[in-house]
Amino acid sequence: MEKISKNAVIFPNVKLGKNCQIEDFCVIGKPAGKDEKKTVIGDNSIIRSGTVIYAGTKAGKNFQTGDGAKIGPDNTFGDNVVIGSNCVVLKGCQLANGVILHSLIELAEWMKIGKNTWIGPGVKTANMIHPKRYNCPDKDKCERDGAPTIGKEVKIGINAIICPFVKIGDYAIIGAGANVIKEVPKGTVVAGNPARIIKKTDEIVCKFDKKLFPYKK
Prior knowledge:
By secondary structure, the chain is mostly beta strands. The protein has one helix at residues 139-145, and strands spanning 3-4, 9-10, 14-16, 21-22, 27-30, 39-41, 46-47, 52-54, 58-59, 64-65, 70-71, 76-77, 82-83, 88-89, 94-95, 100-101, 106-107, 112-113, 118-119, 124-125, 149-150, 155-156, 161-162, 167-168, 173-174, 179-180, 188-191, 196-200. It has a single domain (3-203), classed as UDP N-Acetylglucosamine Acyltransferase, domain 1 (3 Solenoid), CATH 2.160.10. The strands form four sheets. It has an eleven-stranded mixed beta sheet with strand order 1-4-7-10-13-16-19-22-25-27-28, with no helix packed on it. A hairpin with a 4-residue loop joins β27 and β28 (196-200).
């Protein structure tokens, strides 16, 4: 059964799946311009208080947001995606099944993130190498090409920064506070400012059990 707060604003262009919960003061399907694009929220989704979702975004089943999440237009989310409290996801991002954004995260426009990737609190991303330079001959292409790409099963630690044009390979781990300015190969751990490769992910040993290699396949 749907549970939709009387304080929520749901625009006519919105299609809600079965058994959705929409909490207080949410806004869903807010037009980003004159064109009121269709907005889709999948079955069994929970949209928590203060979330704003702009028109044209499509989310799969079991979608969840935390309080105060802000989601721009034309995003595409797979099943079981979580956008945590006070996260900001700008336009045109593609998040595969099982992606989890913890909290206070900012995703730049046009980013692509692979399945089951986890991004920790406070992570920031950027897609422009020269913001506000409107005399760029192909500004839109620069914005799209500059969007970072994150592979599947990636783990990104608290307060990391992912710079424009960066590609992060599958199964990589980004240390807390890392400033990632260049490509991260598959299955590696990077940390520092600027971020450097320090080991393979399958070499990580649990602090409390030296016989446990948590990321070894």
